[in-house]
Design goal:
By secondary structure, this protein is α/β, with parallel strands linked by helices. The protein has 14 helices and 20 strands. The strands form four sheets. It has a nine-stranded mixed β-sheet with strand order 2-1-3-4-11-10-9-6-7, sandwiched between helices. β13, α7 (about 255-265) and β14 form a beta-alpha-beta unit. α5 packs across α6, α5 packs across α11 (about 365-375) and α13 runs antiparallel to α14. It binds xanthosine-5'-monophosphate. Xanthosine-5'-monophosphate (XMP) binds near residues 330, 344, 346, 389 and 508.
């Protein structure tokens, strides 16, 4: 396995993900993890991630120096390269020509790390500082216009530093570089795959939970369903769950989830119809964060009742959640430098239960969760449904959520998705949905003046929901969708198509 020491980079997980995709186990530890902890994992190599700090600051984070005594390869990326250079006596400076974004690197020396590279390659930079003078015993492998040591290595030991980020897509041969590092330099063998992960997760859940009981709230989404299925295999009858129908789901979703629950053979999952409860509490609420919080808390309320009454006789000690990695980044959890963008529904759950939280999917991205779901034999229809946020249609109705508005957005969404499926476009799109805008505009239908609502259509292409581009739906198809929505959904007389990327917009509207 490869250990990644995280210096606070949003990309640290991307490094782990790339390595896992290459078929090798990767574990992320905090940058100051004790050497005993690192040694206990028997890593074949260590990667020092990038990070937002500067080695020019007092008290900047450093890895334990003993990592250089383990006799294994070490690769420093960006901040990781700078801190390595600094620890061996090199000089780091804050660059005059600050290098950000795309750059071209010229490779001067052939090195196993860059096997298969051309003389010049496009790469991605994201840090102002650079290694100005290499420490003794190190030599440069590559440079850019402004940075003489864009990549460097130790003369004798397998220690490398790269100023650019191999883990991001903009570094064209980044994955090859990581592959060279883990296979050629570290000598790793493929030992990681979704079936292995599944077995390990089940085993580890069983170990953690022992004879205790676990409750889970199913939201209708893929993530919580995958967690429930894992738990079912790990602890069987010790799992209890509620599928809270908050009335904010897409068309046919309740039915499909119920079907998945029964085909998985989950023993004790109770379906609770809490539509009225949610709608009542959302009455008059327009603020997006308030909506998210109310929905989160109402979930808890419904859930608490289920625990107090339905599951009273069981020794419940754990609460399982379907939180996945991007939820954590965007909510700023565990990232002192990350800005909170939205309170993700899953994370507004207060911890006053006295239960321990288990989040088996916390390190995974959506595509990994879906593959895991396939491995668990969950129905394809549910797994490959576009992602859907915990707060459901409430955050796709701008302004107050009412029954009438829910009906409009649900119908428009169903038409949109039906047409995308018919045209064979649905599977090409990461996420497509309709949003009801709180505006009315004038139209004409037949000979009559109308004054009705607007539906915005969103369709995005994305790899993991972190960034997204708008999807180019063919104009004729858009026209067909627009015509049907205006004709079939009472209360709508205008349809708009959203062409904003993320960033600066988010995928959802609230
Ligand atoms: P945004 O709108 O933040 O969405 O660009 C990124 C991805 O996350 C989904 N999303 C959520 N998922 N609970 C979830 O489980 C939430 O509260 C939530 N909010 C947004 C969104 O649908 C998109 O796929």
């Amino acid at each position: 396995m490869i250990v990644i020491l995280n210096f606070g980079s949003q990309f640290a997980h991307l490094i782990a993900r790339r390595i896992r995709n290459l078929g090798v186990r990767a574990e992320i530890l905090p940058c100051n993890a004790p050497i005993e902890e690192i040694r206990a994992l028997h890593p074949l190599g260590i990667i020092l991630s990038g990070g937002p700090r500067s080695v020019l600051e007092q008290g900047h984070p450093r890895p334990p120096k003993e990592i250089f005594e383990l006799g294994i390869p070490v690769l420093g990326i960006c901040y990781g390269a700078q801190v390595m250079a600094k620890m061996f006596g090199g000089i780091v400076r804050s660059g005059d020509a600050r290098e950000y974004g795309k750059e071209t690197v010229s490779f001067a020396v052939r090195a196993p790390l860059f096997k298969g590279f051309a003389k010049k390659e496009p790469v991605w930079f994201s840090h102002g500082d650079h290694v100005y003078m290499l420490p003794q015993g190190f030599h440069a492998l590559a440079s850019t216009r402004a940075c003489a040591h864009a990549a460097f290595a130790h003369e004798k030991n397998p220690w490398f530093g790269v100023q650019f980020h191999p883990e991001v897509a903009h570094t064209k041969r980044g994955i090859e570089m990581l592959s060279n590092f883990i296979f050629s330099v570290c000598g790793a063998e493929k030992n990681w795959s979704i079936p292995i992960l599944k077995d390990e997760m089940i085993r580890s859940l069983r170990d953690t939970i022992g004879s205790a009981h676990v409750v889970i709230a199913l939201s209708g989404g893929v993530d919580s369903l995958v967690v429930a299925s894992l738990l079912h295999r790990a602890i069987g009858k010790q799992l209890h769950g509620v599928f809270v129908d908050h009335g904010l789901l897409r068309k046919d979703e309740v039915m499909e989830v119920k079907k998945a629950i029964s085909t998985q053979g989950l023993y004790d999952i109770r379906v609770i119809d809490a539509k009225n409860n949610f709608l009542e509490r959302l009455k008059g609420i327009e603020d997006p964060e308030k909506k998210r919080k109310i929905i989160g808390h109402t979930f808890i309320h419904v859930f608490e009742r289920a625990i107090s009454y339905d599951f009273k006789q069981f020794p419940v000690r754990f609460l399982a959640q379907g939180t996945i990695y991007p939820d954590r980044i965007e909510s700023g959890v565990g990232m002192p430098t990350a800005e909170k963008i939205k309170s993700h529904h899953n994370l507004t759950l207060p911890e006053r239960f006295g239960f321990r939280i288990i989040e088996p999917l916390a390190d995974l991205y959506k595509d990994e969760v879906r593959k895991l779901g396939e491995e668990l034999r969950l129905p394809k229809k549910v797994l490959w449904r576009h992602p859907f946020p915990g707060p459901g249609l409430a955050i796709r109705i701008i302004g107050e959520v009412t029954e009438e508005r829910l009906l409009m957005v649900r119908q428009a969404d169903a038409i949109y998705i039906e047409e995308l499926k018919k045209a064979g476009e649905y599977k090409n799109i990461w996420q497509a949905f309709a949003v009801l805008l709180p505006l009315k505009t004038v139209g004409v239908m037949g000979d009559m003046r109308t004054y009705e609502h607007i539906i915005a259509l969103r369709a995005v292409h994305s790899v993991d929901g972190m960034t997204a581009d708008w999807y180019r739906i063919p104009p004729d198809l858009l026209e067909q969708i627009s015509n049907r929505i205006v004709r079939e959904v009472k209360g709508i007389n205008r349809v708009l198509y959203d062409i904003t990327q993320k960033p600066p917009a988010t995928i959802e509207y609230e």
